[in-house]
Amino acid sequence: MLETKDPKGMTAEKKLESALLFTKAQLKNEKDTLANLSNISAIINMYMDDINWVGFYLMKEGTLILGPFQGKPACNRIAVGEGVCGTAVQERKTQRVDDVLSLDNHIACDSASRSELVVPIYKEGVIFGVLDIDSPSLARFSDLEQTYMEKLVNLLENSL
Length: 160
What we know:
Pfam families: GAF (PF01590). By secondary structure, the protein is an alpha+beta fold. Helices cover 37% and strands 26% of the residues. A six-stranded antiparallel beta sheet has the order 3-2-1-6-5-4, with helices on both faces. Strand 5 (115-123) and strand 6 (126-135) form a beta hairpin. Helix 1 (12-29) runs antiparallel to helix 2 (33-47).
């Protein structure tokens, strides 16, 4: 079992650094992908403030299928090109949306979600899935969170 640091009193950047270090340790100590995705969603949930959902959707037979997560029950399947997750896959790039209600194709799994950060995950150049983080606050995610979550996904990709 890995030792966690209490995030209370940490700056936002220090929390993200801690999440990254904890993720590195998780990936070093465990090779099972399901176990890693489960714990990484818990790590992010523990170290990132003002979020109401964090987890993974995994690409299976051309569709994103719900994977390990923290939060309320979520959509089971998302088509490529639909919603923020499907758009991240289609465009092959991170999506950071300040107001999900401004999108025509937003998929509302939790009506409380107002902003979203989605980072695509690749395995040997092929889409593996996405990391999806939702917040009940408008414009919750900044360059800081995007940078750290892209670093975290890069660590994950190197372990797949």
